[in-house]
Structure formats: C-alpha cells, structure tokens
Amino acid sequence: MTDASADQRVLGPRHEQAFPRLSPTEIDRLRRFGELRTYSDNERLFSAGQPGLGLFVVLRGSVAITHPDGLGHTIPIVEQGEGQFLAEIGALSGKAALVDGWARGEVETLVLSPAGLRAALVAEALLGERIMRALVLRRVSLIETGAGVLLIGQPDDHATARLLGFLTRNGMPHRLLAPDDVQVYDIIAAHPGDVLPIAVTPEGRVLERPDEARLAAAIGMTTPGDLNGRRFDVAIVGAGPAGLAAAVYATSEGLSVVVLDSRAFGGQAGASARIENYLGFPTGISGQALAGRAFTQAVKFGAEMAVPMTVSRLDCEDAEDGRLRLDLEGDGSIEARAVVLAAGARYRRLEVEGLERFEGRGISYWASPIEARMALGQEVLLVGGGNSAGQAAVFLSEHAARVRVLVRRPLEETMSQYLVDRIAAAANIEVIVGAMVTGLVGRESLERVRWRGPQGEVEEPVRHLFLFIGADPASGWLDGCGVLRERGFVATGDTIPPDALGVHSIWRHRRPAPLETSVPGVFACGDVMDKIYRQAVTAAGTGCMAALDSEKFLAEADFEASEAA
To answer: Which domains does the chain have, with CATH numbers?
Structure first.
C-alpha cells in the first residue's frame, strides 16, 4: 500500500496538497504545540468511530490508514511516513475518527491535541494554510470514496432521502446500497421486517430506521449529555450564515463559543443548489459549499459545534448577573454570559389539508441533489416566486422532465432578473401565473396535486411538490424569556421602544447595542430579526455585528467586575 492509492485516484493532481511532507524545520515549529508518543508494530493510533487525539506528525516509521466499510472488510486508503501528518478536518474539534491508523513497525509521532492544532494553525499562518488545505481535501476524499456510514435503503424512499440529506448537509462521508445488493445480504437477513432504512456505522453497529439524532450520536457527531452544565462566553443558536459568521468573529476575539443547531449547518442557504450573487464568488457557489467553508473556519478558531442539538427554551431570569441558561431538548442545559439568536426562519406552509402527512414523502422545502435524483425524468411542481424558488426551478430543470412553477404574480415582480431570464430560456420550465395549490392526494406518499389557475381547477399526477413560499422567523421558542418581538421578528437596538426596556436596571444607564435585544447580553442576527433584506450576505454581516456587540458587552462586564473588586 503506497501513497498512490484510493486518495490519489480521487484527488488526482490535488493529492500532493492533501498529503504534503513537512520539512524538519516545519516540524520543529510544531513541536511546542504537541507531545511525543511512540507506538509498537501493528498498534492502533486511532479508531473509526472513536474520538481521536488530534493530529499526528510521523517522526519515524510509517502508518497505514484504512477504513472499515461496515461489512466486515478493511479498505486501504494510504500509507504515510516520516514528515507526513495524520488527520482530517474532524481533528480540529476532537470528533470521532472516520478511519483507522495502524503502526507499521515502531512509530514515533508528535501529537497535537485539537486545542494544540488550532493554536498552531493560528500561530503558524503559512504552515497552517498548508495543513488546513490538506485536512479539507482529505475530508473531500472520504466523502467521494464513501468512507463512513453505510446506508441501506431504496434511493426513492423518503426516509432514506432524509438521512442522506442530513449526512450530506453535515459533510459526513457515507454511501448508499439498495437492500437487494448482494453485499448487504447478511445484514438484511439478520434484520427482517419493516426496518429500512438501515444505517451501519464504520465499526459495524447496525441501526434500524434511525432518526437524525440517533444516527448523529452513533457516529460521534454528538455525545448525549456532553454539554450539560457547561458554561461558555457566547452561545449561538443557529448555524446558518448569520450564526456561522457570529461564531467566526466571536472565536477570533478569543471567546469560548458553542453553536447549536437542530439539523445541519448552513440553514436555508445551505440547501440552495447554487448562489450566484454572494460577494466574492463570480462563478457561483452551492449553499452547502459556502456553509462548509464557514463551518470549517469557525471550528478552526475554536467554536464548539453541537449539531444536531435543539434548544427548547432561553431562561433570562439571571441575565443581569451574566447567567443566561439554554435548555436543551432532552439533554440538560448550558449557561452562557451572552447569547446570539441566529435561529433563522421556518419554512412557510401551505394551508392545504393533508400537508403534514406528505412532508418528507413527496413535499420538500429545498431542492438538493438528493431530491433532484429522486425526481429524475419526472414532472415536478414548484410553488414560489422568490430567488430561492428560481434557483430551485433552474436546478431541477436539469434533472426533471418538466418543472411547472405556480406563482401568484409575474416573476418580474418578485425575482432577480438573471433568474427570470434563465427560467425563460429553459425549455422544460413552465410558469403558471395566478395559480395556487388546492388539494393533495396520496396514500403512503404524494401521488396527485390539485391546483386552481387561469384555466380553472386541475388535478394531475405529481409525486414531487417543492414549496418555496417564504419563511417566518423561528422565534416561538423565545416565549417567556422577555425578548421583545414584533410579528415574530426579534427587535434590536433602536427599534426597541424605550418603554419596553423597564424590566432590567441596566437600561437606566445605556441603550441596547445595535443588535442587542430587550434582554441585556442577548443579541440577534440574520432572518430572525431581519424584516427587509433576507439575504445570505446580509445575514453574515449581521452575524459579524452581533459577535462584535457581544464581545464589547463582555469586555465591559469584565471591566466593571474588576473595578468592583
């Protein structure tokens, strides 16, 4: 087994960037961030599914990197020798390893813990850039080769698609096999009945019909109870563009930060097939790629990511004492000195009977490659006239036989012109103005859709209905904490009426900061407070502002405490 293995075939010319060899001088610069460890022949340095120690620099000997495929086989990936380092992007946060590392002969290493690795990346900028590029490329290779979770299910099954979407949006390597594939015969035989989809972890643990939370815990994305009782400088609720930007700027200021999101990083923007008007990406970028870069950047600076993790309640009773409590759904609570609300928005739903029954079973609120694959060669219906709807329609038209778009008003009134032009140029997109869905029909999943348009009421076979009809701020969980809201949007700064600030004594001495709420130390950014712009780039901007506001708030609190002492 040599470097010219699976990774080289996947990465091609990028292989040398993914597996660089450090010079003795570069290794010496890393020594102050790590400690020496030795391993005997065939000893395991790290195991798939178990938390890793961090980054290993090989000083002597060589290490074989393999991955278990969940079917009892060991797949060779690469062998690394002196001057090379062992890790991928998960090493930044101490998450479970995705591969196994075996000593070949006696091996001496320099081990950088996750904290030591992050410190090295910041202190050694040029060397850190090489290391970061390698860590990212290695995760890309693992994703493309399917190392990680094995899913067994039908590609067109909605429960299977939900798990695929969850793993994909969280950047977790996986592969899918159909239940009649000969490779999974023994697993299917040992698990009869209605158990699909099945997930098999790298170490061989079999999960029948898991939900996202159970799957995440099984593969080491989250550790139940791990956060309970902990205290942070800043807790950020939501991992969309606003929350990730807040995490980057708060951690870069040296604050301890945790980011919590109930499903995946990226928010609604992360589900966009392509964003073409985000500053700095002239050729466009997928929402997932944009979110993935921001996620990695936040982790590099030390943000702790708790995904999936649902916050059920914010307790602001002791806000003026610098103690804000976040109750976690089924997992205790945490405290923070400041909280940034970046929970984004909830997809707006049609008022049509039976809608909930078909959500995830033919009705989707985003159009990712997974949904596009399920709709391959079929006719699909899309409702909505905003930019997200336009991006989805164009993307789906590359896969579906026909895309019909139902809108109340002409696209020119609600959509960016470049998308209007692109839709007009697509031969298989039909726009129906003045139309609305009136009924849904199906048994196990969606089978037919009724809508009323200029030609009267129509009912046709439709198995895939995409809804892009806007979103409302996700702020219902804030009930009872004293954060002022207007039509669901969190009020901040000068938008808060003076008579709404009487509860907390701190307001006798100052006004809230620009993105501070009616509760001192609680800040808001992104779609949960933005009534007007609702763009990924503006969400990221307000995330930066909220982080800087919170940093200033904490600095002033520390100064006052030191003066009092």
So the answer is: 6-145 (2.60.120.10), 149-212 (3.40.30.10), 231-346+473-564 (3.50.50.60), 355-469 (3.50.50.60)
